[in-house]
Design a protein that fits this description.
alpha/beta, Rossmann fold
Length: 324
C-alpha cells in the first residue's frame, strides 16, 4: 500500500528533523523539501509541516495538499485566508512551547537585572567585579511586571514572576477574570500597562492589530527605569523606536529573543549596547521539548487523516475561512 507523503518545509535544526522522522506514523512518509529548489517534492504530499517560514508560492505547488501543520504556535507567515478558501486547515501547537518560552523569558529578566552578561565579560577579560554592579543590580521581588497578552505563555510568565514576589498587571483583548480572581492579577488599560510596569513583557501574537504596536509613543510612556522584554515576535516592536529609547534613556534595559528582521546582521546597533540582553529566537528550542513538539505535530496529522479530533479543538487557526 502506498504511503501518504508529509512534506517538511522551512528552517529546521537536525534534532527536530530526526525526531519527526522517528515519530512519523505508520502509513506515512516524511519528505524533506526545505528550499525552493526542492519544492517539486511537495507535488505528491497530502500534508505539510513547516517551521518559521513557508514560501507563498507553495499554494500553487501542492495540488494534493489536505492539511498543513505548523511547528510551534506562530503562524504569521501563513496566508490563512487563501489556504482556508482552498479548504485546507492550518493547525498550530498552542501551549506546547509555553513552559520553555516562559523559562527563557525569566532568564532574560534576571540576566538584565543582575548584569550577568557584563559580569561574565569582565571575568573573561581577567577582572573580578564582585561589587561594581551593586548599585546597578535589582531583584524581581517587589517589582510590577506588566504582561502584554495573558495567554498560555503570558500566564506561565505571570506565575513565575509571582513566585519571585513580583506584582502582576496585564492587558489583553480578552479579559482573564478567572486568572484575576485566582492569582490576584490586575487588568489594566494598555496605557496604564506602559506607564506603571517596571518590567514590560510581550506575549501576544503577531497579526495586523499588534504589528508595530510598541512604537515611539509607547516607549515615551514607559518609566525611564523600565525593562522591556520580548520573547514573542520582533515585528510587534518598531526596532528603530526601541534603539532610540535605549540610547536616549526613555527606558533602561531591553531583553530580547526576537527581532524585527532576523537574523540580525553583524554590527547591528542592539548588539553593541550594554543595556541589551540578546538571545537568538531560541525560546522554543530545547532538546527535551523537541520530542513533545514532534509528537504533537505527528499526532495531529495522524488524527486528521483518521477522522479523529486533533489534540485540541483550538489547533485549527483558519476555521473562519474554511467555512467561507
Amino acid at each position: 500500500m502506498q504511503k501518504r507523503k508529509i512534506g517538511l518545509v522551512g528552517i529546521w535544526f537536525p534534532e527536530a528533523k530526526e525526531m519527526l522522522h522517528e515519530l512519523t506514523p505508520p502509513g506515512f512518509e516524511l519528505v524533506e523539501a526545505l528550499s525552493p529548489g526542492e519544492f517539486w517534492r511537495l507535488e505528491e504530499c497530502e500534508a505539510m509541516v513547516s517551521r518559521l517560514t513557508a514560501d507563498p508560492g507553495l499554494i500553487d505547488l501542492t495540488p494534493r495538499m489536505r492539511f498543513w501543520q505548523v511547528w510551534g504556535s506562530g503562524f504569521e507567515y501563513c496566508d490563512i485566508e487563501a489556504w482556508g478558501r482552498r479548504g485546507i486547515p492550518i493547525a498550530n501547537c498552542p501551549g506546547v512551547n509555553a513552559g520553555i518560552v516562559a523559562e527563557l523569558t525569566i532568564m532574560l529578566m534576571l540576566a538584565g537585572y543582575r548584569n550577568l552578561l557584563q559580569i561574565n565579560r569582565d571575568l573573561r577579560n581577567g577582572h573580578f567585579p564582585r561589587s561594581e554592579y551593586f548599585g546597578k543590580s535589582f531583584m524581581l521581588r517587589g517589582k510590577t511586571v506588566g504582561i502584554l497578552g495573558l495567554g498560555r505563555i503570558g500566564r506561565r510568565v505571570a506565575g513565575l514572576v509571582s513566585a519571585f514576589g513580583a506584582k502582576v498587571i496585564y492587558y489583553d483583548i480578552l479579559r482573564q477574570r478567572e486568572q484575576e480572581e485566582r492569582f490576584d492579577y490586575r487588568f489594566v488599560s494598555f496605557d496604564e500597562l506602559l506607564k506603571t510596569s517596571d518590567v514590560l513583557s510581550i506575549h501576544c501574537p503577531l497579526d495586523d492589530s499588534t504589528r508595530g504596536m510598541i512604537d515611539e509613543t509607547a516607549f515615551a510612556k514607559m518609566k525611564p527605569t523600565a525593562m522591556f522584554v520580548n520573547a514573542a515576535r520582533g515585528a510587534i516592536v518598531k526596532e528603530a523606536a526601541l534603539i532610540d529609547a535605549l540610547n536616549s534613556g526613555k527606558i533602561a534595559t531591553a531583553c530580547l529573543d526576537v527581532y524585527e528582521h532576523e537574523p540580525l546582521p553583524p554590527g547591528h546597533p542592539l548588539l553593541s549596547m550594554d543595556n541589551v540582553v540578546a538571545s537568538a529566537h531560541a525560546a522554543g528550542n530545547t532538546r527535551d521539548n523537541t520530542e513533545n513538539m514532534a509528537r504533537y505535530v505527528m499526532e495531529n496529522i495522524d488524527a486528521f487523516f483518521a477522522g479523529r479530533q486533533l489534540n485540541s479543538p483550538e489547533d485549527i487557526v483558519n476555521t473562519a475561512f474554511l467555512k467561507a
